[in-house]
Specification:
By secondary structure, the protein is an all-alpha fold. The chain is about 70% helix and about 0% strand. It has a single domain, classed as Four Helix Bundle (Hemerythrin (Met), subunit A). The protein has helices spanning about 1-20, 30-50, 55-75, 85-110, 115-140, 150-170, 175-190, 210-225, 230-255; strands at about 145-150, 195-200.
Length: about 270
Protein backbone atom coordinates (compact mmCIF):
# COMPACT_ATOMS: atom_id res chain seq x y z
CA UNK A 1 0.00 0.00 0.00
CA UNK A 2 2.78 2.38 0.90
CA UNK A 3 4.58 1.81 -2.40
CA UNK A 4 1.34 2.36 -4.34
CA UNK A 5 0.71 5.64 -2.56
CA UNK A 6 4.28 6.77 -3.35
CA UNK A 7 3.84 5.97 -7.07
CA UNK A 8 0.53 7.84 -7.09
CA UNK A 9 2.12 10.89 -5.48
CA UNK A 10 4.97 10.81 -8.01
CA UNK A 11 2.48 10.67 -10.88
CA UNK A 12 0.57 13.63 -9.47
CA UNK A 13 3.81 15.62 -9.07
CA UNK A 14 4.78 14.83 -12.66
CA UNK A 15 1.37 15.95 -13.93
CA UNK A 16 1.66 19.17 -11.93
CA UNK A 17 5.07 19.93 -13.43
CA UNK A 18 3.75 19.23 -16.91
CA UNK A 19 0.85 21.63 -16.44
CA UNK A 20 3.08 24.48 -15.20
CA UNK A 21 3.71 27.15 -17.86
CA UNK A 22 7.16 26.93 -19.39
CA UNK A 23 9.51 29.79 -18.58
CA UNK A 24 10.05 31.91 -21.65
CA UNK A 25 13.59 32.44 -22.76
CA UNK A 26 14.76 35.94 -23.64
CA UNK A 27 17.53 38.49 -23.35
CA UNK A 28 18.13 41.31 -20.92
CA UNK A 29 17.26 44.64 -22.49
CA UNK A 30 19.21 47.18 -20.44
CA UNK A 31 22.85 46.06 -20.86
CA UNK A 32 22.26 45.04 -24.47
CA UNK A 33 20.90 48.50 -25.24
CA UNK A 34 24.31 49.91 -24.34
CA UNK A 35 26.00 47.24 -26.46
CA UNK A 36 23.77 48.04 -29.44
CA UNK A 37 24.44 51.74 -28.97
CA UNK A 38 28.18 51.04 -29.03
CA UNK A 39 27.69 48.98 -32.18
CA UNK A 40 25.84 51.90 -33.76
CA UNK A 41 28.76 54.16 -32.86
CA UNK A 42 31.11 51.95 -34.90
CA UNK A 43 28.64 51.72 -37.78
CA UNK A 44 28.13 55.49 -37.72
CA UNK A 45 31.91 56.00 -37.82
CA UNK A 46 32.22 53.86 -40.96
CA UNK A 47 29.38 55.72 -42.68
CA UNK A 48 30.87 59.11 -41.81
CA UNK A 49 34.26 58.03 -43.17
CA UNK A 50 32.65 56.91 -46.42
CA UNK A 51 31.09 60.36 -46.70
CA UNK A 52 34.41 62.10 -46.03
CA UNK A 53 33.45 63.38 -42.57
CA UNK A 54 36.44 61.95 -40.74
CA UNK A 55 36.17 64.10 -37.62
CA UNK A 56 32.65 62.75 -36.99
CA UNK A 57 33.96 59.25 -37.70
CA UNK A 58 36.56 59.62 -34.94
CA UNK A 59 33.96 60.97 -32.53
CA UNK A 60 31.74 57.98 -33.31
CA UNK A 61 34.52 55.56 -32.29
CA UNK A 62 35.14 57.45 -29.03
CA UNK A 63 31.41 57.43 -28.24
CA UNK A 64 31.36 53.68 -28.87
CA UNK A 65 34.23 53.33 -26.43
CA UNK A 66 32.32 55.13 -23.67
CA UNK A 67 29.21 53.02 -24.24
CA UNK A 68 31.27 49.82 -24.34
CA UNK A 69 32.72 50.62 -20.92
CA UNK A 70 29.21 50.91 -19.47
CA UNK A 71 27.41 47.78 -20.67
CA UNK A 72 29.37 45.38 -18.47
CA UNK A 73 29.06 47.61 -15.42
CA UNK A 74 25.32 47.99 -15.96
CA UNK A 75 24.95 44.22 -16.29
CA UNK A 76 26.80 43.62 -13.03
CA UNK A 77 24.94 46.36 -11.15
CA UNK A 78 21.54 45.06 -12.28
CA UNK A 79 22.50 41.37 -12.09
CA UNK A 80 21.61 40.86 -15.76
CA UNK A 81 24.77 39.09 -16.93
CA UNK A 82 24.33 36.50 -19.65
CA UNK A 83 26.31 34.46 -22.15
CA UNK A 84 24.32 36.15 -24.90
CA UNK A 85 25.48 39.56 -23.66
CA UNK A 86 29.09 38.38 -23.63
CA UNK A 87 28.94 37.27 -27.25
CA UNK A 88 27.05 40.39 -28.28
CA UNK A 89 29.69 42.56 -26.63
CA UNK A 90 32.52 40.82 -28.49
CA UNK A 91 30.81 41.19 -31.86
CA UNK A 92 30.11 44.84 -31.16
CA UNK A 93 33.76 45.40 -30.21
CA UNK A 94 34.90 43.76 -33.45
CA UNK A 95 32.87 46.23 -35.49
CA UNK A 96 33.54 49.37 -33.44
CA UNK A 97 37.19 48.80 -32.52
CA UNK A 98 38.34 46.39 -35.22
CA UNK A 99 36.67 46.98 -38.57
CA UNK A 100 35.78 50.66 -38.07
CA UNK A 101 39.29 52.00 -37.25
CA UNK A 102 40.83 49.86 -40.01
CA UNK A 103 38.39 51.10 -42.66
CA UNK A 104 38.53 54.72 -41.48
CA UNK A 105 42.32 54.82 -41.52
CA UNK A 106 42.40 53.15 -44.95
CA UNK A 107 39.91 55.58 -46.50
CA UNK A 108 41.58 58.63 -44.92
CA UNK A 109 45.29 57.94 -45.41
CA UNK A 110 46.30 54.39 -46.28
CA UNK A 111 44.46 54.09 -49.58
CA UNK A 112 47.18 56.09 -51.34
CA UNK A 113 49.82 53.54 -50.32
CA UNK A 114 48.32 50.86 -52.54
CA UNK A 115 48.82 47.29 -51.34
CA UNK A 116 50.77 48.49 -48.29
CA UNK A 117 47.74 50.46 -47.22
CA UNK A 118 45.27 47.60 -47.22
CA UNK A 119 47.98 45.36 -45.75
CA UNK A 120 48.24 47.58 -42.66
CA UNK A 121 44.45 47.92 -42.39
CA UNK A 122 43.95 44.16 -42.62
CA UNK A 123 46.69 43.43 -40.07
CA UNK A 124 44.98 45.77 -37.61
CA UNK A 125 41.55 44.22 -38.25
CA UNK A 126 42.89 40.67 -37.92
CA UNK A 127 44.78 41.49 -34.72
CA UNK A 128 41.62 42.98 -33.22
CA UNK A 129 39.74 39.75 -33.96
CA UNK A 130 42.55 37.65 -32.47
CA UNK A 131 42.72 39.90 -29.41
CA UNK A 132 38.99 39.56 -28.74
CA UNK A 133 39.02 35.80 -29.31
CA UNK A 134 41.95 35.37 -26.93
CA UNK A 135 40.22 37.49 -24.30
CA UNK A 136 37.09 35.35 -24.52
CA UNK A 137 38.95 32.08 -23.92
CA UNK A 138 41.34 33.48 -21.29
CA UNK A 139 38.85 35.34 -19.07
CA UNK A 140 39.02 32.67 -16.36
CA UNK A 141 42.81 32.57 -16.08
CA UNK A 142 44.20 36.03 -16.88
CA UNK A 143 45.20 38.26 -13.96
CA UNK A 144 42.30 40.69 -13.55
CA UNK A 145 44.63 43.60 -12.76
CA UNK A 146 46.14 43.57 -16.25
CA UNK A 147 45.04 43.08 -19.81
CA UNK A 148 47.04 40.71 -21.97
CA UNK A 149 48.00 43.01 -24.81
CA UNK A 150 46.57 46.43 -25.66
CA UNK A 151 42.75 46.46 -25.33
CA UNK A 152 40.98 46.96 -28.64
CA UNK A 153 39.16 50.17 -27.53
CA UNK A 154 42.50 51.77 -26.61
CA UNK A 155 44.03 50.70 -29.93
CA UNK A 156 41.06 52.22 -31.77
CA UNK A 157 41.43 55.44 -29.76
CA UNK A 158 45.12 55.74 -30.70
CA UNK A 159 44.40 55.30 -34.42
CA UNK A 160 41.31 57.49 -34.66
CA UNK A 161 42.72 60.04 -32.21
CA UNK A 162 45.63 60.75 -34.56
CA UNK A 163 43.14 61.14 -37.41
CA UNK A 164 40.99 63.47 -35.28
CA UNK A 165 43.91 65.77 -34.43
CA UNK A 166 45.17 65.87 -38.02
CA UNK A 167 41.69 66.60 -39.38
CA UNK A 168 41.20 69.50 -36.98
CA UNK A 169 44.61 70.87 -37.98
CA UNK A 170 43.66 70.73 -41.66
CA UNK A 171 46.23 68.04 -42.49
CA UNK A 172 45.33 65.71 -45.35
CA UNK A 173 45.58 61.98 -44.84
CA UNK A 174 47.84 61.60 -47.87
CA UNK A 175 50.41 63.87 -46.20
CA UNK A 176 50.75 61.58 -43.17
CA UNK A 177 50.15 58.22 -44.84
CA UNK A 178 53.35 56.55 -43.65
CA UNK A 179 53.08 57.79 -40.02
CA UNK A 180 49.51 56.46 -40.08
CA UNK A 181 50.81 53.20 -41.53
CA UNK A 182 53.27 52.84 -38.62
CA UNK A 183 50.65 53.79 -36.03
CA UNK A 184 48.09 51.30 -37.36
CA UNK A 185 50.65 48.49 -37.34
CA UNK A 186 51.88 49.40 -33.85
CA UNK A 187 48.36 49.48 -32.42
CA UNK A 188 47.34 46.27 -34.16
CA UNK A 189 50.38 44.20 -33.27
CA UNK A 190 50.43 45.48 -29.67
CA UNK A 191 46.94 44.03 -29.22
CA UNK A 192 48.24 40.48 -29.72
CA UNK A 193 51.38 40.74 -27.59
CA UNK A 194 51.70 39.44 -24.03
CA UNK A 195 52.63 42.92 -22.76
CA UNK A 196 50.61 43.73 -19.60
CA UNK A 197 48.39 46.81 -19.62
CA UNK A 198 46.76 47.98 -16.41
CA UNK A 199 43.03 47.22 -16.49
CA UNK A 200 41.77 49.51 -13.65
CA UNK A 201 39.48 46.64 -12.60
CA UNK A 202 40.69 46.84 -9.01
CA UNK A 203 39.53 50.45 -8.76
CA UNK A 204 36.28 50.45 -6.79
CA UNK A 205 34.00 53.35 -7.68
CA UNK A 206 31.50 52.54 -4.93
CA UNK A 207 33.93 53.48 -2.17
CA UNK A 208 33.84 56.93 -0.59
CA UNK A 209 36.67 59.29 -1.53
CA UNK A 210 37.97 62.61 -0.15
CA UNK A 211 36.32 65.78 -1.46
CA UNK A 212 39.50 66.80 -3.29
CA UNK A 213 39.12 63.79 -5.60
CA UNK A 214 35.81 65.20 -6.86
CA UNK A 215 37.51 68.54 -7.53
CA UNK A 216 40.29 66.81 -9.50
CA UNK A 217 37.72 64.89 -11.58
CA UNK A 218 35.92 68.14 -12.38
CA UNK A 219 39.22 69.73 -13.48
CA UNK A 220 40.04 66.74 -15.71
CA UNK A 221 36.62 66.97 -17.37
CA UNK A 222 37.15 70.71 -17.96
CA UNK A 223 40.59 70.11 -19.50
CA UNK A 224 39.20 67.44 -21.81
CA UNK A 225 36.39 69.79 -22.86
CA UNK A 226 38.95 72.45 -23.89
CA UNK A 227 40.75 70.28 -26.45
CA UNK A 228 39.09 66.84 -26.51
CA UNK A 229 41.02 65.53 -29.52
CA UNK A 230 44.47 66.42 -28.16
CA UNK A 231 43.82 65.51 -24.52
CA UNK A 232 42.08 62.18 -25.18
CA UNK A 233 44.62 61.15 -27.81
CA UNK A 234 47.51 62.03 -25.52
CA UNK A 235 46.01 59.97 -22.69
CA UNK A 236 45.60 56.91 -24.88
CA UNK A 237 49.06 57.27 -26.43
CA UNK A 238 50.53 57.32 -22.92
CA UNK A 239 48.44 54.27 -22.05
CA UNK A 240 49.58 52.56 -25.25
CA UNK A 241 53.20 53.00 -24.17
CA UNK A 242 52.65 52.21 -20.49
CA UNK A 243 52.42 48.47 -21.10
CA UNK A 244 55.96 48.32 -22.46
CA UNK A 245 57.16 50.39 -19.49
CA UNK A 246 55.54 47.91 -17.09
CA UNK A 247 57.01 45.03 -19.08
CA UNK A 248 60.55 46.53 -18.95
CA UNK A 249 60.24 47.34 -15.22
CA UNK A 250 59.15 43.80 -14.41
CA UNK A 251 61.92 42.39 -16.54
CA UNK A 252 64.52 44.56 -14.79
CA UNK A 253 63.22 43.54 -11.34
CA UNK A 254 63.13 39.87 -12.26
CA UNK A 255 59.35 39.74 -11.78
CA UNK A 256 57.24 37.42 -13.92
CA UNK A 257 56.24 39.39 -17.02
CA UNK A 258 53.40 37.13 -18.17
CA UNK A 259 49.95 38.15 -16.99
CA UNK A 260 48.61 34.60 -17.36
CA UNK A 261 47.76 33.30 -13.92
CA UNK A 262 48.95 29.85 -12.90
CA UNK A 263 46.16 29.59 -10.36
CA UNK A 264 42.78 28.08 -11.19
CA UNK A 265 41.12 30.00 -8.35
CA UNK A 266 40.48 33.12 -10.42
CA UNK A 267 36.76 33.96 -10.58
CA UNK A 268 35.01 33.06 -13.79
CA UNK A 269 34.00 36.24 -15.59
CA UNK A 270 32.08 34.66 -18.45
CA UNK A 271 28.76 36.34 -19.10
CA UNK A 272 29.78 39.49 -17.26
CA UNK A 273 29.37 41.78 -20.27
Amino acid sequence: MHDGEQVSQDDESLKTLQTLPKRRKGIYILPNLFTLAALFGGFYAIVMAMNGRFEMAAIGVFCAMVLDSLDGRVARMTNTQSAFGEQMDSLSDMVSFGAAPALISYIWALKGLGRWGWFAAFVYCACAALRLARFNVNTAVVDKRYFQGLPSPAAAAIVTGFLWIATEAGIKGSDVAWPMFALVLYSGLTMVTNVPFYSFKDVHFKQSVPFIVTVVIALVIAIIALEPAIVLSALFVIYGISGYVIFAWRKAKGIQTSVISTSTDEPDERGMH
